[in-house]
Specification:
Number of strands: 3
CATH topology: Multidrug-efflux Transporter Regulator, Chain: A, Domain 2
Distance between the termini: 54 Å
Shape: globular
Order of helices and strands: EHHEEHH
Largest sheet: 3 strands, antiparallel
Structural class: alpha+beta
Strand content: 5-15%
CATH class: Mainly Alpha
Strand order of the largest sheet: 1-3-2
CATH superfamily: Putative excisionased domain DUF1233
Helix content: 40-55%
Radius of gyration: 15 Å
Number of domains: 1
CATH architecture: Orthogonal Bundle
């Protein structure tokens, strides 16, 4: 008998969808991106080649990173 393991779905969200799903502000998201806490290619991707192209966020990766900071609130103080 062969057991197939389900592959987790990679759910990409727009910035607005991510802010709503994670309950964070745009300014906090921008700070986390600017300080390289959230990294391109790991947490987000651009939909075009321009630096002005819309971004999509990998929900599970962003949530895991935010959970790390929730467990260590002093780390967020360093960012602010």
């Amino acid at each position: 008998m062969t057991v197939l393991m389900a592959t987790p779905t990679r759910r990409w969200l727009s910035t607005t969808e991510l802010l709503q799903s994670q309950g964070i502000s745009r300014s906090l998201l921008n700070q986390l991106k600017r300080t390289s806490v959230l990294k391109q290619g790991i947490h987000y991707r651009r939909l075009g080649t321009s630096s002005k192209s819309p971004m999509q966020w990998l929900e599970a990766e962003v949530e895991a990173t935010l959970m790390t900071f929730a467990a260590q609130p002093e780390a967020l103080e360093v960012i602010q």
